[in-house]
């Protein structure tokens, strides 16, 4: 065995400085790194936005929320959004808070943006653990997703419309994990503070416990056909169409993970892949929204990863 002492990997803007490692000599494998994750569409100003920041209320009054299960829909511009049972888009408001849950939309605001009553919906396509309620000032209970109060927009007059997207720069369609749909800005973290996620951190998953996620909230996975000694990726060719190598991160932008466990694998095409405890890390194209774990157990060879690089089962 060959010890690699004081290994230093430097990349512009994403320098990763590491201590002692024991991953063994790298061996080549065919294949290339996949393309970067597609960026969401930029937030746009919804039609009919008013100077008050929440838009005018149609003469017909507040829009009613259809009772029944929540539904997810793929919008060609915004990606995955949550709708009510009738297909009307649901929104979140930047001036609200998620922890603690609180709505700051009352009066005329609530006429243009009717709060979704907590008792009118069931989780449906949204994880039950992400749904909840918040007490409003008038004593009613409003539905929350990941702590964020959710609303309809009165100027959405037909299912599938997203006229509220970007209104006042504060209203956005909501994703199944409570984030803002269709934005290129950093997503809010799980605490709902509005801060961007670290480049690498841990997330509490209902079934798997604390698992590693990247800066976009994507679950990272290990492949049991890879090896740690020598450090080698055996995901090649068609495998890389579904499993994309995780990119290097700045050790100053990680949370809950020992930086000494991180090292860079140079793939045969010269691209760099992040590893933990000498195991290559990947994200799964089948995970459509942050927090998804659709790759868990695929082929009995792919598993989410714990902070110490072990398989999460």
Automatic annotation (TrEMBL):
GO biological process, one term: alkane catabolic process
Stretches for region Disordered: 27-71, 114-134, 175-201
Span of the signal peptide: 1-22
Keyword ATP-binding listed: no
Keywords (A to Z) from UniProt: Lipoprotein, Signal
Comp. bias intervals (Low complexity): 27-46, 55-69
Protein name: Lipoprotein
Taxonomic source organism: Streptomyces gardneri
Lineage summary: Bacteria, Bacillati, Actinomycetota, Actinomycetes, Kitasatosporales
